[in-house]
């Protein structure tokens, strides 16, 4: 991965964590019928985009967005399996493998 200041990596990590939290809170909101998790999901999503905007000040947009989206998606899928008992078909596992490969390949851009 190209050189960047550690603060930008921290912003990216915060953005990823907030995106994952927003996704899990959306599930807990039951289609936005439960107001508290719904409001928290919206706040987490807005905060995630804010943190991402700070991260891309020092990290290439393609790298930051790719890592943010890829890691967030993988972590959300794992939490869906562990917290909500969701199941993935073999094609879903293949998709996660391909996303992981893509994020790793971004290291070399």
UniProtKB/TrEMBL annotation:
The chain crosses the membrane at residues 6-26, 38-56, 62-84, 91-108. The keyword Protease does not apply. The keyword Cell membrane applies. This is Spermidine export protein MdtI. NCBIfam families: PRK10650.1 (NF007934). Keywords: Cell inner membrane, Cell membrane, Membrane, Transmembrane, Transmembrane helix. It is found in: Cell inner membrane; Cell membrane. Forms a complex with MdtJ. Belongs to the drug/metabolite transporter (DMT) superfamily. Small multidrug resistance (SMR) (TC 2.A.7.1) family. It is a multi-pass membrane protein. Pfam families: Multi_Drug_Res. Gene3D superfamilies: 1.10.3730.20. It comes from the Bacteria.
């Amino acid at each position: 991965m190209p050189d960047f200041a550690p603060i930008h990596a921290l912003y990216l990590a915060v953005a990823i964590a907030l995106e994952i939290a927003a996704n899990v809170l959306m599930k807990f909101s039951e289609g936005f019928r439960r107001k508290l998790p719904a409001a928290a999901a919206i706040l987490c999503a807005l905060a995630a985009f804010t943190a991402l905007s700070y991260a891309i000040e020092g990290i290439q947009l393609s790298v930051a967005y790719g890592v943010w989206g890829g890691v967030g998606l993988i972590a959300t899928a794992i939490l869906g399996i562990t917290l909500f008992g969701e199941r993935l078909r073999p094609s879903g596992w293949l998709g996660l493998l391909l996303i992981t490969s893509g994020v790793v390949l971004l290291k070399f851009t």
